[in-house]
Amino acid sequence: MNSQKIFFSAVILALALSLGFSCQKSQMDKDREIIEQYISDNNLDAVEYDVSGMFYVIDKPGGTSHPNGSSDVTVNYDGHLIDGTRFDQADTINLNLGQVITGWRYGIPLIGEGGSIKLLIPSAMGYGTQKVGSIPENSVLIFDVDLILFN
Q1: Domain hosting residue 30, numbered range
Q2: Which CATH number fits the domain that encloses residue 44?
Q3: Dihedral of CA 88/80/77/107: which sign?
Q4: Which residue has better confidence, 5 or 112?
Q5: SS3 label, residue 64
Q6: SS3 call for 5
Q7: For 34-53, what is each residue's pLDDT tens digit?
Q8: N or C: which terminus of the chain has fewer CB atoms within 10 Å of its end residue's CB?
């Protein structure tokens, strides 16, 4: 009797997990379609970071030394939604890459000091299912970032 309960519990858990992963995959697929359409519409020569679905365009590579995922950086940036709505911008702001969204933590180290990059960030590497300020849940984010310096 106990082994039967354990078996059914395991089956229910497996079904719940697969449903959760398929929902996540569905949002990931939507984000990819949105990003790929944006790249096409704007004639960008974007590179896919990895299977995460983040894309980027390095406008200026900057110096040969690059920050890492926990570096302190000074940047200028402009953040907007896929429809062009600006949700944030800053000139000469200091940030720690260990305390920002995943897309930044992976994307900013692709350039050196003096470099600039456009990041096309899927929702899972941004704010995910959370609404943050004027940013709706499950939003693809686009950032234009200039890396002034890092340490």
Answers
A1: 2-150
A2: 3.10.50.40
A3: positive
A4: 112
A5: coil
A6: helix
A7: 999 999 999 999 999 999 99
A8: N
